[in-house]
Design goal:
Chain lengths: 218, 114
């Protein structure tokens, strides 16, 4: 069984559990992902599947891309991504086929990888959670500063990794162990408990959880 | 947001009557104690409705033993078994927070007989 699939973040809403408690959920649209290429140990020296997601106009596919897709008989996709899996997992899956939402069941745990929202150039309070300075008691033009950044002649330099203002967000992040609350197979929708990285309409990789598996029904 | 609204529009419950801030309602709440279920009634004035669609909530205020009690109910929650409107209140604002500072006669609302 393949472990991962690409999806699009639709947005957040809520569900209720049996006790009537609210569970915040994120909806992810997991449309069937066409398999574009199968990489094998024999040929590429590693095992993987190249899958596509979304669609783009035929005109927008340049010659190399069009040729590559033609081999698998796949329509031009918004993007291509490779997922690593063992030969056993990839057994039975070949170029021209597709990965679908069927690999997930209610109660599964998944890891979701995506690109976080960009925050631009952020100060230390927002970026690193510094507490800032007093708003009163005579503080003068020094409210959201980071304070001292080091010592004196010894060591005479800054330590690497010193937390300072700078660019924040727009990096790849993975949220682990999110529970699948609901799977709507007819509409290709996955309901995942909790928040996932990125903005609405962002593309995310949904993977069976590395650390946690679904609780066995006894 | 549109996709979510479309998905949930047919899931919204229709068994809750129309009511708004200022109305006196009695809410039947499913309470689970161990494996027994029973209905608890919470009666009071609706002081706000908040949010929309599947995540809409409403707040009910009552004075119990001289102490003001407010409870927030998600309208779509299965714990809210039913809502009954007992009295329509005539109010000029959507959020009746001013009731918190008032007690007794001044905390009464005119009835809307319209």
């Amino acid at each position: 069984m393949p472990m991962a699939i690409l999806g699009k973040k639709i947005g957040m809403t809520q569900r209720f559990d049996e006790q009537g408690r609210i569970i915040p959920v994120t909806i992810v649209e997991v449309a069937p992902c066409p398999i574009v290429q199968k990489k094998t140990l024999a040929k590429e020296r590693y095992s993987a599947l190249q899958i596509g997601f979304g669609s783009r106009r035929k005109k927008r596919a340049n010659r190399p891309l069009a040729g590559h897709l033609k081999k698998a008989g796949v329509e031009p996709t918004r993007l291509l991504k490779e997922i690593r899996l063992t030969e056993e997992e990839a057994a039975g899956l070949d170029a021209g086929g597709a990965l679908t939402i069927e690999i997930f069941e209610k109660g599964d745990f998944v890891d979701v990888t995506g690109r976080t929202k960009g925050r631009g150039f952020a100060g230390v309070i927002r970026r690193h959670g510094f507490s800032g300075k007093n708003m009163t008691h005579g503080t003068h033009e020094y409210f959201r500063h980071g304070g001292s950044i080091g010592m004196c002649a010894t060591p005479g330099r800054l330590f690497k990794g010193k937390k300072m203002p700078g660019h924040m967000g727009a990096v790849q992040r993975t949220i682990q162990n999110l529970r699948v609350v609901e799977v709507m197979k007819d509409q290709n929708l996955l309901y995942v408990a909790g928040a996932i990285p990125g903005a609405k309409n962002g593309i995310v990789l949904v993977r069976k959880s590395v650390k946690k598996t679904a609780a066995k029904k006894s | 947001m549109d996709t979510i609204r479309r998905l949930e529009s047919d899931k919204l419950r229709t068994d809750i009557p129309e009511f708004s801030s200022g109305d006196t309602v009695s809410v039947s709440v499913l309470v689970r104690e161990g494996d027994k279920e029973r209905i608890q009634v919470f009666q009071g004035v609706v002081i706000q409705r908040k949010g929309s669609g599947y995540s809409e909530t409403f707040t009910v205020r009552k004075v119990s033993g001289g102490i003001g009690v407010e409870r927030v109910f998600p309208i779509q929650s299965p714990s809210v078994a039913s809502v009954e409107v007992l009295r329509k209140g005539k109010v000029r604002r959507a959020r009746l927070y001013f009731l918190r500072e008032r007690t007794g006669r001044s905390a009464r609302l005119k009835e809307d007989r319209g």
